[in-house]
């Protein structure tokens, strides 16, 4: 079974030089793909959706601030 990631988006806070990542949920929202904008053809990391959304929630809550 192949999972499709077609709705790639990157942060509006991305640097003008393009050094950032893009994310795309799978069609059923069960998985999230993450890839480097400098080399999109190099592949991606794939996370279970619940793990990704927990990570994003932690970032927003400041859990990873120094």
From TrEMBL:
Gene source species: Longispora fulva
Protein name, as recorded: DUF397 domain-containing protein
Record InterPro entries: DUF397
Segments for region (Disordered): 1-26
Source domain of life: Bacteria
Segments forming domain DUF397: 7-60
């Amino acid at each position: 079974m192949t999972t499709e990631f077609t709705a790639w988006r990157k942060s509006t806070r991305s640097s003008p030089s393009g050094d950032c990542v893009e994310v795309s949920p799978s069609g059923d929202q069960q998985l999230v793909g993450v890839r480097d904008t400098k080399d999109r053809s190099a592949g991606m990391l794939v996370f279970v959706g619940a793990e990704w959304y927990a990570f994003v929630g932690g970032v927003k809550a400041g859990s990873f601030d120094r």
